[in-house]
Amino acid sequence: MKIKINISSETVVKPIIAESILETGVLLNVSQAHFDRSHGEIVADVMEEHYEKMYKALSSRGARVTRLDSPIEWNEEECVECSACISVCPTRVFSLEEDYSLKVDKAKCIQCGTCVEMCPQRALTLINNK
Amino acid sequence: MVKKTIHEINARIRDGSVNVVTAEEMVNIVGELGPEGASREVDVVTTGTFGAMCSSGVWFNFGHSEPPIKMQKVWMNDVEAYTGVAAVDAYMGATQLSESQGMDYGGAHVIEDLLRGKSVDVHAISHGTDCYPRKVLDTSLSLDDMNQAIMINPRNAYQKYNAATNSSKQTIHTYMGSLLPRLGNVTYSGAGVLSPLSNDPEYLTIGTGTRIFLGGAQGYIVGQGTQHASAGMFGTLMVQGDLKKMSPDYIRAANFTGYGTSLYVGMGIPIPVLDERIAQATAVRDADITTSILDYSVPSRDRPVLRKVTYEELRSGHVELEGREVATSSLSSFKRARAIASELRDWISRGDFFVSMPVERLPGNTSSHAMKETEGVSFVSDIMSVSVVTIEKDASVYKAAKIIMETAFNHLPVVSKDNVLVGIVTAWDISKAVSQNKFDLVEDIMTRKVITARGDEQVAVVARRLDQHGVSALPVVNGGNHVVGIITSDDISKLFARRH
């Protein structure tokens, strides 16, 4: 499963991810990380059975942990199948079928939200992105 | 030598014997039968396109109120429509933005809402005249309440369009969609094999008066579109149609993040196959249509061309750029373009749509020139301060504070021993350091990711950079990243203060 870890400016300099991994012995596979002056945001994979342990370790160190259990939502009514989403998706969630219909493979979604910005019809939404 | 007339073809449409195919189907027919055989066999070829066409809009006539008003300004759902004509006519352009919702809602959305049967709030103001005494008007109108709602699109259906990419280090947001950094993706528009003007590049049958499919209804070509540049195969069309008869399947509002609103317009043009020359033209394939991939990170009219490309390559899902495979995606829907070409084919086959010859040909060999600018353009080097004071990275914070006090410069570019820019410190950084009791080296408190300018850049471009990054000064650097000056928001405001 995927989790999003938000770190505020006060804790951004502390090695809380490393500490949490050492304390729990649970491995995190980081798929995205973004840091700037004001905060940090990490998307990582963790095994379902280890989620609680990791959640506690990170939360106790001041991080905010969200489960990313809802992949991208595709509103077919709004979509005009222009396919703009295809070229910005890092994991190839989107593709065109033989007849140029859009195919959406939600299982591949890492919830980065790039396609949400790209879609001219606002036909893609990410609940966890709100 | 095959020669047919429009009257013969229309007679076949009337008696049900007409043979209509889409431009996609025509490729194989010409391949098998040759242009002569194909022109004997096929009477009409239908094209289609469904893409974002910013240069679109609708003329509304609202009817007269009691007492009447001469609308001087009018808003529909808070989006301003152009009035400066008679009392109750206004033109709603697709890209006009809502005054309260900004980029989330625009003229295109007003048009789509009306098309979906919704009412829009109309607000108008006037100075009042003897014949039109009313000064303010507020009402709510649906499409049925309008006398006319005539779509007139000044520039639609580009013969072909440039593809876009971005070589800079940041994502940019354009009317070609989000372009990822470091040539991360390529976007393009246009229906290639189905593109109307690409199937009649000499404009033998497409011209003023040609009857077309527009937004799901019958419309007409008014004539050449604005910026029609036929010499470079960038022809455009001005088209008109009755919004009241259109369908939201083919007219859709769009939002391009960071750019604004636009309108997806579905259009199909029938090409009567009068002779083999026309048959040959309609056999055009994606592989025959070339365009250029431009670098949209260069904020200039003349964007660098990275390479030429065919629509076949673009449609394959990736192109090679600088030795790498880069993902491509279309901004226009080929599926809908196909649906339009098929629907138009069915209309003609059923006898619901008759083809026409233009009353006037579109001009060939025209080009679109750049704007003549009579006011001098300001460059960064014209207004930057050259007496820039820099500080070395291993100087103390105390020394930086002292320089700021003595020179009254709020921004100190930080340089290495060999005078290469490595950071910047501001009066604010120093205040912050002092408040935290940090009196170490400049290097420890400086901002390392410096936003810079070059002397040969236009001030307008640099002003936007200041705005985007929320900073008030940019060190000006040369090719070796040596500081040659500094430009501040003060310098820019002085420039404008002189002008106005």
TrEMBL record, chain A:
Keywords for this protein: 4Fe-4S, Iron, Iron-sulfur, Metal-binding
What Pfam families has UniProt attached to this entry?
Fer4
Q: Where is the 4Fe-4S ferredoxin-type domain?
A: 70-99, 100-129
| Example GO molecular function | oxidoreductase activity
The protein's name in its UniProt record:
[Fe-S]-binding protein
**UniProt source species:** Methanolobus chelungpuianus
TrEMBL record, chain B:
Keyword Ribosomal protein listed? The answer is no
**Top-level taxonomic group:** Archaea
Domain (CBS): residue spans on this chain: 384-441, 446-500
| InterPro entries hit by this protein | CBS_dom (IPR000644), CBS_dom_sf (IPR046342), Diverse_CBS-Domain (IPR051257), HcyBio (IPR002708), MA1821-like (IPR016426)
Q: Which Pfam families match?
A: CBS, HcyBio
Which SMART domains does the UniProt entry name for this protein? CBS
- Which biological process, per GO, is one annotated for this protein? methionine biosynthetic process
Q: Which keywords annotate this record? A: Amino-acid biosynthesis, CBS domain, Methionine biosynthesis
- Give the protein name, as stated in the record: CBS domain-containing protein
**Which organism is the protein's source?**
Methanolobus chelungpuianus
